[in-house]
Design a protein that fits this description.
By secondary structure, this protein is mainly beta. It is built from 3 helices and 43 strands.
Length: 597
C-alpha cells in the first residue's frame, strides 16, 4: 500500500514578502492554487511560488524540480494544459499582459514563449475534445469569472469575453466571507470609511498607496467574497466549471461548481455545492483547485489549504479522491481529509473510511522548554494555527507524548510551524510591484529524531533524520504492520535559519483496544436560509464528523469537529438537506443516523 496524509509532503519554500500594506517584511512558507496534470505517464503539480513543479509517478511520492527562470515563477496561479503534443503554461500578474509558454518536455524544455495580448488573474486553459481551446479567468470580489475562446496558435481571444459566474451571497451560504462564513458585504460608504481608517492607521494618504494596490485594499474591506480559481472538467457532454470562494485566508475556503451544456454557458449551479469544502480538522481549507483523472480513470482533486498566521498567503496543498455520481453530480471526499489515506483504498472507492484513527488529540505532553502561551499542549490540539515553541534554538529541544495506553501505531505526521522569523532577506526581491518578494532558492534542511517506548524509559529510535538534507515541514512516516507504543518523543536537531523549533502538530494515527463510541445522538436545526446548528450529545467520542447533503444517500459535505455544538453556514437557499453525525475515537468510527433537516 502507498499512504499519504495532507498536506502534500514536499518542501514548501519560504517567501520573504515586501508587504507594502504593512510597510514591513513578512516571512512564511507558501504553495497554493495547484494545477494538477497527467502527462506522458507522470503526474505534475504546478503551484504558486514554488520556483518549479512537483513530479510524481503515483500521486503519493512527490519530487520538487526547478523550472527555468525565464518562466513566470513569480506570478500567481500557474495553469497548464495539454494541447496536441505540447503542454501550455501561463500564470498571472495583475495589470500587465500575461504571456503563454509551451513545451514538449516539462522538465527539460525548451519553452517557447507566445506573447500575451491581455492581462488576467487566476487563469485556466481548457482543451475541448474537438480541439478548440477555451480560457477562464478572474480573481476579485468585484468582478466575475470570465470566459473566452482562444486561437490555439496565437493564444489571442476569439470574440468578446463573457461573464460566467458571479457571487450570490443571498443564495449561496458557502460564498459568505469570514471565518465560518460570519461576514456580510459592506456598503460603498462603509468600504470608503474603512479605507480611510486604514490609511490613517498606517500614517499614509491615498497618494502614498500605489494605484495597483488601491482596489485590492478597498476590496479587502468590502467583505464580499473573492470569486476566483476557475477550473473546467467535461463529462458526458456537460461542462463543470469550478471556482473558489470566499477567501484563501479563511477556514471555509472552498470550490463550488456550475454546469452547462456549452463551454461558455450559460451556467447553472450544480445541485451539490460546495464541491470541495473542508472547514474543520487540523488543517482546514480546500479552495482554488484542479480536478483530473489519474492513469486508472479515477478522479482526484487538489486544492489550497489554509494556515494564514504569519501572512494571509501562508498556505499548503492537499489532494483528495473525487468522482461523479450516477446523476452526474461532482463530489469530493474530505471527511477525514487530513488523516492518512491509502492510495489503493481511495481508488477502490472514494468513500473508503480511514484504516487508522487519531490517537494524539488532547493527550498528555511534556517538553524540554517552551515560551509562555506556546506550551507543548498546543502540538496535540489539532489546530494548525497554534504550536509549541521551544525556548531556545539549540539542537536537542524535545517534546514527548503519552498516548495513555499501549497502542498499535501506524503513522506519525510531524508538522513544523514558523514563528516570528526576523532575519535579513537572503536574496533580491523579484516579481511585479504588487507581489514583490524573495522566494528562497537554496535547499534548506529540517532535522529530527523520533523515538518510541512502551514504558516511558526504554526508548528506541523509530526514525532518524538527524542528517537529513530535506526540508519537509509536514513529514509523514508509516509502519503498515504497526508498532506497539505508548510514548513517543520528538527531538529537534535543527530547523531552517537556526530558529527556535515549533511544532503545530505531533499527530499519531493507529488503533487502541477499546470500545468504539456510541451511536451519536444529535439535533440539527435550520436557523436561517443558509445556516444550520448541530448539537451532539457526548458519548465517549474523541470527535465527530457532521455530514450533510441534498439527498440521504449523498452526504457529500462534511465538517470534522472536536466540540458538541457547531454552526454550519454553507447551505444553499431553497435546498432540502439530510444530516448525519458520525463519532470517532482511538478504536474506530461509529456511523450515525440520517435525519432530514
Amino acid at each position: 500500500m502507498r499512504y499519504f496524509c495532507n498536506p502534500v509532503n514536499v518542501n514548501y519554500r519560504y517567501q520573504f514578502y515586501d508587504d507594502q500594506r504593512s510597510k514591513g517584511i513578512k516571512v512564511a512558507r507558501e504553495a497554493a492554487d495547484p494545477s494538477l496534470l497527467c502527462f506522458q505517464g507522470r503526474y505534475y503539480m504546478f503551484a504558486s511560488m514554488t520556483l518549479g513543479v512537483w513530479v510524481s509517478d503515483d500521486l503519493v511520492h512527490w519530487e520538487n524540480r526547478r523550472l527555468p527562470d525565464t518562466l513566470p515563477l513569480y506570478d500567481y496561479a500557474p495553469d497548464v494544459c495539454v494541447l496536441g503534443e505540447y503542454v501550455y503554461l501561463c500564470a498571472s500578474r495583475r495589470g500587465e499582459n500575461c504571456d503563454f509558454y509551451r513545451t514538449k518536455d516539462i522538465l527539460q524544455g525548451p519553452y517557447e514563449k507566445i506573447q500575451g495580448t491581455f492581462d488576467f488573474w487566476d487563469p485556466h486553459m481548457f482543451a475541448d475534445e474537438d480541439g478548440r481551446l477555451y480560457f477562464y479567468w478572474g480573481c476579485s470580489n468585484m468582478t466575475p469569472i470570465w470566459g473566452v475562446e482562444l486561437d490555439p496558435k496565437t493564444m489571442r481571444p476569439i470574440g468578446e469575453k463573457r461573464a460566467l459566474i458571479d457571487s450570490d451571497v443571498t443564495r449561496m451560504g458557502y460564498e459568505r466571507s469570514g471565518e465560518g462564513h460570519t461576514l456580510l458585504p459592506r456598503t460603498p460608504e462603509e468600504i470608503e470609511r474603512c479605507y480611510q481608517d486604514f490609511l490613517k492607521a498606517q500614517n499614509m494618504t491615498d497618494a502614498d498607496l500605489p494605484d495597483a494596490y488601491k482596489p485590492l485594499v478597498k476590496g479587502m474591506f468590502s467583505q464580499r467574497p473573492y470569486i476566483e480559481g476557475a477550473w473546467m472538467n467535461k463529462r458526458n457532454g456537460k461542462y463543470y466549471l469550478q471556482y473558489a470562494c470566499p477567501g484563501t485566508q479563511y477556514n471555509v475556503y472552498a470550490d463550488g461548481v456550475y454546469v452547462s451544456g456549452s463551454p461558455l454557458g450559460s451556467f447553472e449551479p450544480a445541485v451539490a455545492n460546495p464541491y470541495s469544502y473542508k472547514p474543520g480538522g487540523f488543517l482546514p481549507g480546500a479552495g482554488h483547485g484542479s480536478t483530473i483523472e489519474d492513469m486508472d480513470g479515477n478522479l482526484w482533486h487538489a486544492a489550497t489549504m489554509r494556515i494564514s498566521v504569519n501572512h494571509d498567503f501562508e498556505r499548503r496543498v492537499g489532494i483528495w479522491p473525487a468522482g461523479f455520481d450516477g446523476d452526474g453530480e461532482l463530489f469530493c471526499n474530505q471527511r477525514y481529509g487530513d488523516w492518512p489515506m491509502a492510495l489503493e483504498d481511495a481508488r477502490e472507492t472514494p468513500w473508503r473510511e480511514p484504516r487508522w484513527y487519531l490517537l494524539s488529540y488532547g493527550k498528555p505532553v511534556k517538553a524540554s522548554s517552551w515560551e509562555e502561551g506556546k506550551g507543548p499542549e498546543r502540538a496535540v490540539d489539532e489546530n494548525v494555527q497554534a504550536w509549541w515553541r521551544a525556548a531556545s534554538p539549540e539542537p536537542g529541544e524535545w517534546i514527548s507524548l503519552n498516548l495513555g495506553e499501549d497502542s498499535q501505531v501506524h503513522a506519525v505526521q510531524v508538522n513544523f510551524a514558523d514563528d516570528r522569523i526576523d532575519i535579513p532577506v537572503p536574496g533580491k526581491f523579484e516579481g511585479p510591484a504588487t507581489q514583490a518578494r524573495y522566494i528562497e532558492k537554496h535547499e534548506l534542511a529540517t532535522r529530527w529524531i523520533l523515538e518510541g517506548a512502551s514504558d516511558g524509559e526504554d526508548y528506541q529510535v523509530l526514525v532518524d533524520k538527524s542528517q537529513a538534507d530535506t526540508d519537509l515541514s509536514h513529514d509523514l512516516v508509516v509502519w503498515e504492520e504497526g508498532k506497539k507504543l505508548r510514548y513517543l518523543k520528538l527531538t529537534v536537531i535543527g530547523v531552517p535559519y537556526g530558529q527556535q523549533p515549533c511544532i503545530s502538530g505531533l499527530r499519531v494515527f493507529g488503533k487502541q483496544k477499546k470500545e468504539k463510541p456510541q451511536v451519536p445522538e444529535f439535533t440539527a436545526e435550520r436557523t436561517g436560509e443558509l445556516d444550520m446548528h448541530v448539537k451532539i450529545r457526548c458519548g465517549g467520542a474523541v470527535g465527530y464528523n457532521i455530514l450533510w447533503g441534498e439527498a440521504p444517500e449523498k452526504l457529500y459535505h462534511s465538517y470534522l469537529v472536536f466540540n458538541t455544538e457547531q454552526r454550519i453556514g454553507a447551505l444553499v437557499k431553497d435546498r432540502d438537506y439530510w444530516v448525519r453525525v458520525d463519532a470517532f475515537n482511538e478504536a474506530g468510527i461509529t456511523e450515525g443516523v440520517v435525519k432530514k433537516l
